[in-house]
Amino acid sequence: MASFFSFMAILVVIFRFYARRLSRASLGPDDWLALSALVYVLALNGIFIGGTVQGAITGHSPVVDNWPVTTELEHLAQKYKYAFQTTEKIAFALIKLSILFLWKRIFGLAKSFVVFCWIMIAVITAWSITFLFATIFQCGTRWTWNWAPIGIFLTQCINTLDLLTVFTATDLFTDFIIMFMPVPLIWKLHMPIKRKIGVTSIFMVGLFTIGAGIARMYIYLVTSYDKEDNPDFIADFTLFILWSEIEANVAMIVCCMPTLAPVLGKFSDNLASLLGSAHHGKWTIISSDRATGNGRKADIELPLHNKVIPWQGGPGVVTEAGHSEAEEQFNNNEGILARTEIHRTFEKRRSEHTQTSGDLGR
Q1: Nearest to 48 by CA among 83, 73, 13
Q2: Are 153 and 78 contacting, i.e. CB atoms less than 8 angstroms apart?
């Protein structure tokens, strides 16, 4: 799963920068923040993969008298937990800031909206710094206590349960605000209702991130505050880090999706061109010379798109074109069929015509 998410995260960021190139738009703070967020999301994926390989994630704690027994695996799981929770604070902050700067870029003409964006940028910056330092120094400067046995960690360090509860709740709250910020502006635009719904749905893909955050918070509250029924520390930690992993990667993908329209447009054009090249029509070119009365007829195969028939003919030549493909071919293809007839004639000048009439009169 982490490998798949890593591939998708890298792909959407590459497409984001490619979309800027296709649209000839300059790179902005939102793009560079997305690139920076990618680094930390990949770090989260690396932590998850490393913990899984070593058994610290997806493993189990031995339980005696409804309490996990201290083992080397538990120490290792605590180290991975500390690394993951520290890194995720930076990753989530960069993703949120990237989206906010994107909103400011898209709706930059709405002054009140831009002011609100700057307020949210300040809030997210303060929020991330606060929880980052609270996580780093949750046991003060006694660093080894961060991966001490769970009993020592819970009694000697700050109340990490309440800290993580507040973090997950505020994470969801800020996600909700950020995702719904553009909706009022969209519905004020003068466009059909169906189009408004379509545009709104593009911005509402962030609901997937909110859904993953809700699942993570539920898992955390159930497993952390009810230790009697959930004494397996490593199993509980696995569920929590799993949903954190899903939320971070989905958020990474979501923050890039509104920028990918040029790439999707180019892909659809290439796909239409590829499919169109498989359907050929037969064109009959009939050329007759007025002077000699000789006629020529030739059939050529041409694709039905992006082709220009090389009409040729000298003075006094009439060139006609018509599509002679069987009608049944088009009954199986959706689209618009246009029949074009081209007539190319050359008329004599008025002086020549007058001279000819005089000659005939003689």
Answers
A1: 83
A2: yes
Angle at 240 between CA 236 and CA 242, to 5 degrees: 115
Which residue's entry shows tokens 């709104």?
A: 200
Contact 180, 222 (CB under 8 A): no
Rounded Cα gap, residues 232 and 238, in angstroms: 10
Question: Is residue 268 a contact partner of residue 112, using CB atoms and an 8 Å limit?
Answer: no
Question: Any idea what DSSP says for residue 157?
Answer: S
For residue 302, the surrounding DSSP H or E stretch is strand 295-303
How far apart, in Å, are the Cα atoms of 229 and each of 68, 217, 233, 359?
12, 18, 11, 116
d(CA 146, CA 137): 9
CA 49 vs. chain centroid, Å, equals 24
pLDDT in tens, 227-263: 556 667 777 778 888 888 898 999 999 888 888 888 8
Collect all residues with Cβ–Cβ distance below 8 Å to 244 and sequence separation of at least 6: 44, 84, 88, 216
